[in-house]
Amino acid sequence: MKARVTVTLKTGILDPQGKAIEGALKSLGVAGVASVRQGKVFDIEVEGTDRAQVEAALKDAADKLLANTVIENYRVEVLG
Amino acid sequence: MKSAVVVFPGINRERDMARTLKLVSGAEPSMVWHADTELPPGTDLVVIPGGFSYGDYLRCGAIAARAPIMDAVRAHAGRGGLVLGVCNGFQILCESGLLPGVLMRNAALRFICKDVYLRVERSDTPFTRDYNAGQVIRVPVAHGEGNYVADSETVTRLEGDGRVAFRYVAPDGKLDPRWNINGATNAIAGILSERGNVLGLMPHPENHVETAIGPTDGRGLFAGLTQHFAKVA
User: Fold this and answer.
1) Most A CBs within 10 Å, among B54, B56, B57, B59, to test the A interface
2) CA distances from B62 to B81, B92, B172 (A)
3) Is B228 designated active site?
């Protein structure tokens, strides 16, 4: 099954990279950019057909390695 | 003092560290490979050196923190054994849960490679006993991710329990945002674990130990550790 784990910084954690990207977008004149927060996307293929099992495995992966839960939140989506 | 230096792929400061440990303590450290599962018997001090373990992929120190040897390092710390992490080693200790918080990208987004001034906050630890509390030392930094961040509860606890070991300061020892090179919370450069037996710091004291190279302010950290174990033995 195909799945996606999205890791984003928690609210309140300073994001200097996001700020730099925000500044670049503004200097490019992209209309309406108010703020940017950057993060990571992991596209993962998992063996198995049980959605709940796949989701549990990816949560385990995110907790153990993909996200640092001190500063980051994550979201798991099983795409099928 | 029997020390062990942990070597991960991508680490590049392990020779500097081993050289300093030998120079100051007189004893050659063991080099321990990341895939090993045990420390040499009788290890007093585990050192995790600086570098770019696993290419800093994912997050600095994230993959090294999950390497097989880290279970042995955790067990050593659990027994009250001393652990020192420098630069990438500090990042690895934070990722492994041995120290709280995380090292984020420097506030100005630049890699910083220069000498900085640190204030030694306390002298009653095995790591800082050769310094005086309030003493200012000059040591180099070389990092892109040294901006210490933790939730406010953790920072309050660190401060309240006196677990901030080193802070970035002006040469006269005063706190000054201009000298807090990477934007770290409360200018934190190094912290201790709850029991005080694990120290992580971003600067490289191991690089300022010989007059032939320049200042020798880093020597005190290793001299203190050597005294600590001489006394214990």
Assistant:
1) B59
2) 22, 6, 36
3) no
User: For residue B218, how far is the Cα from the chain centroid?
Assistant: 12
Residue pair B74/B85 in contact (Cβ under 8 Å)? The answer is no
Contact B190, B201 (CB under 8 A): yes
Assess contact for A4 and B140: CB atoms under 8 A. Answer: no
Distance in angstroms (rounded) separating the CA atoms of residues B56 and B64: 9
Question: Which among B95, B108, B109 is the nearest to A68, CB-wise?
Answer: B95
**Closest Cα of chain A to B60: distance in Å?**
11
> Which residues, listed in sequence order, are joined to residue B1 by a DSSP beta bridge?
none
| Mutation target vs A (from B56, B57, B58; most A CBs, 10 A cutoff) | B58
ipTM score of complex: 0.84
Predicted confidence (pLDDT) per residue in A1-22, tens digit = 999 999 999 998 888 889 999 9
Q: How distant is the Cα of A62 from the closest Cα of chain B, in angstroms?
A: 12
pLDDT in tens, B10-61: 999 999 999 999 999 999 999 999 999 999 999 999 999 999 999 999 999 9
Tokens of B140: 């180099």
Amino acid identity, residue A18?
A: G
User: What does the pLDDT read at residue B204?
Assistant: 98
Query: Whats the size of chain B, residue-wise?
Result: 233
Among this protein's residues, is B206 annotated catalytic? yes
Residue B200: in which H helix or E strand, if any? strand B198-201
